[in-house]
Design a protein that fits this description.
Length: about 325
């Protein structure tokens, strides 16, 4: 089996079978990460380009490492030091990169739909590494992988997403993915940070954080995206922590074996208490490792290597 598209633009476009294929392929990739020498020749001769118009630590580094562990060649284009500052368009920049031999272009952009536009322009595969407030598909895939690894399944789980739902591409991709995979998804946070008609995505909306967390198997905590905020959408940071932050008392409302996820970057003491972030129920560090495995799986699948090369070379 292979993916239906040359690109990975969003979770919304993926079938259940495709999501399972990506998650299943990430397991042998994770085995490679456990080795002392984390390098296999699987994508030797392929060229992978990261193109990030917005800041990133986890996503950019993990794509870069994923490509290197599979022996692909990588380059990173930074808008601030490229001809983008001279006014070159996204389309012309992408065509230029492709003309040099890029096989996969990974893009993060503040404008929703940018990766989709790019995918129509180039023959190379395009991976969406986050487009505005729209989607962050690889984050949702690594979140689903982490939950499935710990719980054995996604079907029937109760998952609460807590925080700034309005500005969160992570929330949207998680909602599309988890509901497709048969989980019950609840969203909660300040009313001013709750998108209108979010119920249409098949989630339950809770205005009370406490009610939302009652009996859940998973809590996915989101940061407040101050860089995308208008003033006055939420109380002060201190009030936000008091009213919506995940603390010991609120975590106790979930199942005793509930997992705590956070996509990062974290604001400790705001949306999550430090002792929860570092506590026994937290899988935040594992999410980061799984992010590399998921991105290795995607690079492998989008390279069309599944019929020719063994993953381990
Ligand atoms: N989760 C996430 O996208 O983190 P970065 O912004 O650091 O890539």
């Amino acid at each position: 089996m292979s993916l239906n598209s040359k690109d990975l633009l969003g979770i919304r476009e993926l079938t259940v079978e495709e999501i399972n294929l990506i998650l299943d392929t990430a397991t042998p990739m994770k085995d490679i990460l456990k080795r002392k020498i984390k390098k296999v020749p699987t994508l030797r001769g392929r060229t992978i380009v990261t193109f990030f118009y917005e800041p990133s630590t986890r996503t950019r580094s993990s794509f870069d490492l994923a490509a290197k562990y599979l022996s692909a060649d990588t380059i990173a284009i930074s808008p601030s030091t490229s001809s983008v500052v001279k006014g070159e368009s996204l389309k012309d920049t992408a065509l230029t990169i492709e003309a040099m031999g890029a096989n996969i272009i990974i893009i993060r952009h503040s404008a929703a739909g940018s990766p989709h536009l790019l995918a129509k322009t180039v023959r190379a595969s395009v991976i969406n590494a986050g487009d505005g407030t729209h989607e962050h598909p690889t984050q949702a895939l690594l979140d689903m992988y982490t939950i499935r690894e710990k719980k054995g399944t996604l079907k029937g789980l109760k998952v609460a997403i807590l925080g700034d739902i309005l500005h969160s591409r992570v929330a949207r991709s998680n909602i599309w993915g988890l509901t497709k995979m048969g989980a019950e998804v609840r969203v909660t946070g300040p009313a001013t940070l709750m998108p209108a008609e979010i119920e249409k995505l098949g989630v339950k909306v809770y205005m009370s954080v406490e009610e939302a967390l009652e009996g859940v198997d998973v809590i996915n905590v989101l940061r407040i995206q101050l860089e995308r905020q208008q003033q006055g959408l939420f109380p002060s940071i201190r009030e936000y922590a008091r009213l919506f932050g995940l603390n010991k008392q609120r975590l106790a409302l979930a199942r005793p074996d509930a997992l705590v996820l956070h996509p990062g970057p974290m604001n400790r003491g705001v949306e999550i208490a430090p002792e929860i972030a570092d506590g026994t129920q937290s899988v935040i560090v594992e999410q980061v490792t799984n992010g590399v495995a998921i991105r290795m799986a995607l690079l492998y699948l989008l390279s069309g290597e599944e019929d020719s090369n063994e993953i381990t070379g």
